[in-house]
Amino acid sequence: MTSPRRPGVPGASGTPRGVMPPPMAPPSHQVAQLYGPEFAADPHAVYERLRRYGALAPVEIAPEVGALLVTDYRAALDLLHDPVTWSKDSRTWQQTVPADSPIVGMLGWRPNVLFNDGEAHERYRQVITDSFDRIPPHELRALVVEAADALIADFGTAGEADLMRQYARRLPLMLFNRLFGMPDSYSDRLIQAIAGLLESNGPEEAAEANASFEGYVGELIGAKKQQRGPDITSWFMDHPAGLSDEEVVHQIVLTMGAGHEPTTNLIGNALARMLTDDRYYSTLSGGALTPRDAIADVLQNEPPMSNYSAHYPTRDVYFHGVWIRKGQLVLVSYAAASTQHGRTAAGTGGGATGSGGGAHLAWSAGPHSCPVQRSALLIATTAIERLTAWLSDIELTVEHDQLVYRPGPFHRALAQLPARFTPISIDHAGAAPWDSSNSSPSSSTPPAGTSTEKPTASARSAPQPS
Ligand code: HEM
């Protein structure tokens, strides 16, 4: 066993700023970049290379911004379950990073649940979990069905769609607009603002999108101050934790931000698997795989958030073979840890059939693990069931290996998901896409011989009107 090395000067052996060199540290030009197109094209190849360093590896998450990435499952759990050694407070670290670094948006400190420890964290978290707990699952499901049907009605007649832009990205935001208490007429504003944040070309466009999002949240708060309603914003405001106005704004922004991107990616990545794997489209009696299987597969092999859980040690610490300096940025790779060893790798599809390792870190673990897992699963499952039930012959217009993913160190996010299907028109939201009692199409689907020729596994479990 090599003797532990004491912390030295960050960057001393050519590692990026803010990163202590681990054993076998590569020269800086060889440090894996998690933000470019190469990583987006094949992240698992990068994770494989990183495993050579042991449980943690040096990476760059933006130009000149280094981090240590935990790729080992056991080490990930040790870190995530030890809030004494590991803090989520990024304020000291942030001073080492240029203020205009693209990374600040995801890692810059704010007074919200994600960047606080101990009692402050618990207080914010309680507000969020209590509020989500107030939404009965059947009502949440009905809202998802309504949003899904409205979107499918919009593009269904065209016979083709980009399922990311026209479905997976819009649906969670339409839903949040409702859940947080705004009329549907506001949902396009929210969608535009978030799209602007995700797709901005340069700081000016990003600032515009940010202003637009802030404007939306400002109006939301204003409306709820005038009149409370049965919605998350009002529940945040009136929670016994007594959040200040500023704290309410920050929890809303965080919850919407933390919620929409991974939910979009969960829907997108699971749809991509379903539409390129025949096992999801075998006959009714063939024991076909369901949307739930596709989601389980994605959570195990291609988690929507691939690397996150930014932590900073509260003291110099020797951790799984590496000395880590107090305050140094350490990220957890949910994707690498969940596919380690016997666990399956992305693209194999093995997770859905039970050959995966079972346990995964797609929701993270410990005190900061996703507090809304049940709701998020219900949203994603319903969205996929609804889509595949209406569009039973849907297929991708490109091969799976031609799909393009958005670059970025934190997410596994499809850029587009182009698909075609037999055009349909939906008579009314909430209609049944498939009448399971007589296995015939509902009045809203086209005549037999078109989209309903081949009932799918998902059609069997099609959501029925509530
Ligand atoms: C309705 C949708 C969702 C909402 C409202 C939501 C909300 C949140 C919130 C508030 C946190 C911060 C918890 C804390 O710091 O204590 C969080 C953390 C997290 N969520 Fe979710 N989430 C949603 C969906 C998802 C999905 C679909 C995934 C991926 C499968 C996911 C993965 C995570 C992960 C990995 C964390 C930990 C982040 C970290 O510690 O850095 N979430 N989520």
Distinctive features:
alpha+beta; 10% strand; 466 residues; 6-stranded mixed beta sheet; disordered C terminus; binds protoporphyrin IX containing FE; disordered N terminus
Walk me through this protein's architecture.
With 466 residues, the protein is an alpha+beta fold. It has a single domain (28-181, 229-460), classed as Cytochrome P450 (Cytochrome p450, Orthogonal Bundle), CATH 1.10.630. Helices cover 41% and strands 10% of the residues. The chain is built from 17 helices and 13 strands. α9 (170-179) packs across α10 (187-199), α9 (170-179) runs antiparallel to α13 (245-274) and α13 packs across α16 (373-390). The longest helix is centred in the middle third of the chain and has 30 residues, at 245-274. The protein is globular and about 65 Å long. It starts with 31 loop residues before the first strand and ends in a 6-residue tail after the last helix. Mean pLDDT is 85; it is low at 1-15, 345-356 and 435-466. Bound molecules: protoporphyrin IX containing FE.
